[in-house]
Amino acid sequence: MEQDTSMITWHHSPAHLFVPNAFYIVTASTLCHQPLFNSPQKLHILQSTLFEIMQAYNWRLQAWAVFSNHYHFIAQSPEDSSSLKPLIQRFHSQTARAINVLDGSKGRKVWFQYWDTCLTYEQSYLARLNYVHNNPVKHGLVASAEQYPFCSATWFNERAPDALRRKLATIPYDNIDVPEVHCC
């Protein structure tokens, strides 16, 4: 089955392939990896804004993990998958304004850039799904991903079919190459 795709060239990166109804992984970091979302209150703002923006743009969130200085998510695009760029712009703008108000730092630049890729085959999707769920463990924040309240591990385990949970548990994720976005 052929899928309609469109190419959009951005000045800072190679052309992006946007595929309707496809799965994407997105990673972004704060400017110079500063731990700006350094409290449960700020992490809650980051996570709840992610949920709100995904719904507003009709993207179906599959996995997420938000941290003091970066985030990852996997989502399925709607028919107009080119909405990813405005989705990220709105997400970054809203969360930056919110924590800048909390910190009394009006106008401070919060986010650097983001990286995205379209996941084109099942094994890649499953490995990255496992990677995102287990990212809090990778960063040494918790012993089990379900202990971290700002990721999708518990949500996934409560809702995913048993067969999918068992399959995902067999998929290695420790050698996944998810580039970090660096600026400093």
Automatic annotation (TrEMBL):
Which SMART domains does the UniProt record give?
Answer: Y1_Tnp
- Any idea what this protein is called? Transposase IS200-like domain-containing protein
**GO annotations under biological process?**
DNA recombination; DNA transposition
GO molecular function annotations of the record: sequence-specific DNA binding; transposase activity
Residue ranges of domain Transposase IS200-like in the record: 19-135
Q: Which domain of life is it from?
A: Bacteria
Q: Which PANTHER family match?
A: REP-ASSOCIATED TYROSINE TRANSPOSASE
Provenance organism: Chloroflexus aurantiacus (strain ATCC 29366 / DSM 635 / J-10-fl)
Q: Which Gene3D superfamilies match?
A: Transposase IS200-like
